[in-house]
Design goal:
By secondary structure, the chain is mainly α. It has two domains: about 50 residues, no CATH class; about 50 residues, no CATH class. Helices cover about 20% and strands about 0% of the residues. The protein is globular. The model has no long low-confidence stretch (mean pLDDT about 75).
Length: about 140
């Protein structure tokens, strides 16, 4: 009797454990933040529904406060390269130079940027500040 109970308990545990792991799917990792997050804690200013047609909006399933985004979305391991020129209005037409036959041909955006609008380049590519006393 005890042996039968032990066998049934073992069978139950094995079947239950197997069924539990078979049903669980690994949670996908949230995409990383491809820009510096410091000073941009109000994520929905840019990522809110309809905030900017050129920036990915917060998914409909996300109904969280903007300040909670960084709990799941971590900064990228490496930040986008900083431009070596000013990021002012005179440099707003990025694609006029950053194309295969343009003045900045060595800095052509990767194919992953094909759907990005030039108006958001400054959101990720931040000009470096000169070190203090380097005038």
């Amino acid at each position: 009797m005890v042996r039968t109970q032990l066998a049934l308990t073992a069978l139950f545990l094995l079947c239950g454990a197997g069924a539990g792991t078979a049903q669980q799917q690994p949670r996908p990792q949230p995409p990383r933040i491809p820009h510096a997050a410091a000073g941009k804690e109000q994520c929905l200013t840019c990522h809110g529904p309809g905030a900017n047609e050129h920036i990915t909006s917060q998914p409909a399933a996300h109904r969280y406060a903007a300040t909670t985004c960084a709990m799941c979305h971590r900064p990228a391991e490496t930040m986008p390269p900083a431009p070596t020129h000013a990021m002012d209005d005179a440099h707003a037409a990025c694609a006029s130079c950053h194309v295969a036959d343009g003045a900045a041909a060595e800095h052509v955006p990767p194919t992953s940027h094909a759907s990005y609008h030039a108006s958001i380049c400054r959101d990720c590519h931040v000009a470096r500040q000169p070190p203090p006393g380097s005038f």
